[in-house]
Amino acid sequence: MSDTQIPLPSLADRAHKLNAGGAVVGVHFLGSTPVFVLGEEALLFAGEAERRLAIHSGAVLASAADGERIVTGGDDGKLIETGASGEHRVIASDDDKRWIDQVVLGPDGALAWSAGKIARVRTRKGKLRVFEAPSTVAGLAFAPKGFRLAVAHYNGATLWFPNATGAQPERFEWKGSHLGVTISPDGRFLITCMQEPMLHGWRIADGKHMRMSGYSTRVRSLGWTAGGEFLATSGSEQLILWPFDGKDGPMGRQPKILARAEARVVVVACHPRHPVVAAGYADGSVKLVRIDDDALILVRQSDGQPVTALGWDGAGQILGFGTETGEAGILAL
Amino acid sequence: MVGRSRDVAACAPINGARVGFVVRRKIAYMGPKRSFQFMAPSDAASKIPVTVLTGYLGAGKTTLLNRILSEPHGKKFAVIVNEFGEIGIDNELVVNADEEVFEMNNGCVCCTVRGDLVRIIDGLMRRRGKFDGIIVETTGLADPAPVAQTFFMDEQVGAKTKLDAVVTVADAKWLKDRLKDAPEAKNQIAFADVILVNKTDLVGPEELSELEARIRGLNPYARLHRTERAKIDIDEVLGRNAFDLDRILTIEPDFLQGESHDHDHHHDHGAHQHHHGNGLKHYHDEDMQSVALRTDKALNPDKFFPWIQDLVAKDGPNILRCKGILSFKDDPERFVFQGVHMILDGDHQRPWKEGETRDSRIVFIGRDLPEDKIRQGFESCIA
């Protein structure tokens, strides 16, 4: 156990701090401009001049970005795309004002979102495909290759080929509520976060189950390290990294356990190029964790305000972070 | 809880095998507290209270809901309803719910949770500050237990909100029939903290006291009110703190609690045989009943906790609610607990006061409860 009495090397003083004026629920980058997604209504562009842009009339429930645009879903039933200059437009709007719960962007410019049981995909060319899940969609993820979408729901997850009309979606079953989903970068494993403090996984080729348990709370944040070697996860008083490098992924193997602390890791964000993970804790601290040797650098001091958002720019030069009470920060490395 | 980090187990390849039984919130007894200082949970006040409105179809839930929303109390509510748009609810924050109930994957068949509530409350908390409370209106056929259990089983929900009370609206004219043919209606009565016997203008006084006696046979502990068109003082419905361990003051049947509420029994005097002193006829329901236990001898915690945990593990599916105030040997503090099916929650509450009777009381409300077995088990916990 690392001794918390010895102060960590710290970059906290170098971070630019700003007050977002409300809970921060996401951090994305449009080019090199950090954009904070607020829990209610607005995006906060933190470029040379701060700019607050109200786009939703209510809570912002989900967001995704690809460097050029941010797409947000709200409890106003709207799906809104915002570009780097702040121009925004409504892409879809639910007639019954049902909440847009999930939003993800695909590798080829495709967009997927869900409201209740209905998941929709819009291709780059603007074609719309619809899939009805057996219960409320609680997680969406595009496969890294091939036009394929993973949908998490009760009692399992489904892999859906939106363009293969007539093809039966492939169902992966495991009892319980699956609240998030991801596909390994090599496309071989499907992993879900469950209501229980554990992850469930399937090897896609043969449906073989795996269970990743031992967490002290529900896993709410996941990320693949550069190269897809590890799946970094929140939910414990350590940063938990499951190895996915071998043929069988993490089956029968121990995870790497890094950055032990008194507080729980609540958000993770993997560096896009290097084996480094940014971990946000329930006590407000943010640390950079080097996977090879568990070297830690403090980015934000603990102050009791849970970290709610973390994000890297595409080049891995800038880290943005935000808390439940609306304190945001940007650290340029 | 603090500081003990748990190691994460190796990823286990499994072939459809069930995972081991886990109850996340167990009651734990850490021995008598050394200090006499009573510490209230520091964050209880900042949690958003959630009121659950149940009642069989047509009993008047929506009437009550609209009454709560339109009273000039200056409070704002987020309302979670089912048939979105079908019934007029004049409120800014109305959320449609799907009532998706699922079993926790912990080997416990009664650990059911409302998954949609987990999601909706998560979303609503992004607009924290826009409302003072949440009201969940269930469908007429809903079992209140999964709603209540959601607040114990999901940590995030439990951290931001607190279950205030389950309020059941009963139709004075039709409930008697529904108790015979609709198990849901019986569940809703047995589970309730507050019961409104509504539409009292449609029945005569004898029919009404007969019905109340039947309700008492199922649930002697809920607060019972007579209403017409769900007209009631809002404070009788909201801010009840029925699931707050700090507010477990006494465990007495409601009709013994004196003059503090508004229903009167006078019209019923002398009308029936088998009266209790308060003028209510006594009914025993065939399959739903309450078991009340009491002893003035101190309990042995090393016997009590294994017993209660074993009891709810085995009979939990049939136990709807339980509640207790306990006096342990050599412990200067009262220990209180409550439970829903297999989930128990308990803690030291406060020091016993000087001159206060140090007795232990427990009540179970449930279906086909093995009363003799429960009584014997409880007796064996005496120190």
Structural class of chain A: mainly beta
Question: Which radius of gyration of chain A do the C-alpha atoms yield?
Answer: 19 Å
Placed side by side, the strands forming the largest sheet of chain A appear as 2-3-4-5-6-7-8
What order do the SSEs of chain A take from the amino end to the carboxyl end, as H and E? EEEEEEEEEEEEEEEEEEEEEEEEEEEEE
**Strand percentage of chain A:** over 45%
Largest sheet of chain B: 7 strands, parallel
**Considering DSSP H and I runs of 4 or more, what fraction of the residues of chain B is helical?**
10-25%
Folded structure, characterized:
The complex is a heterodimer of chains A (333) and B (383). Chain A is an all-beta fold and 333 residues long. In chain A, 0% of the residues lie in helices and 54% in strands. Chain A has a 7-stranded antiparallel beta sheet, with no helix packed on it. In chain A, β2 and β3 form a beta hairpin. The radius of gyration of chain A is 19 Å and the shape is globular. Chain B has 2 domains: 212 residues, P-loop containing nucleotide triphosphate hydrolases (Rossmann fold); 92 residues, 2-Layer Sandwich (Hypothetical Protein Yjia, Chain: A,domain 2). In chain B, the strands form 3 sheets. Chain B has a 7-stranded parallel beta sheet with strand order 4-3-7-2-8-9-10, with helices on both faces. A 5-stranded antiparallel beta sheet of chain B has the order 11-15-12-13-14, sandwiched between helices. A two-stranded antiparallel sheet of chain B has the order 5-6. Chain B starts with 11 loop residues before the first strand and ends with a helix. The N terminus of chain B is likely disordered. Classes of the chains: A mainly beta (333), B alpha/beta (383). Chains A and B meet through β5, β15 and β18 of A and β1 and α2 of B.
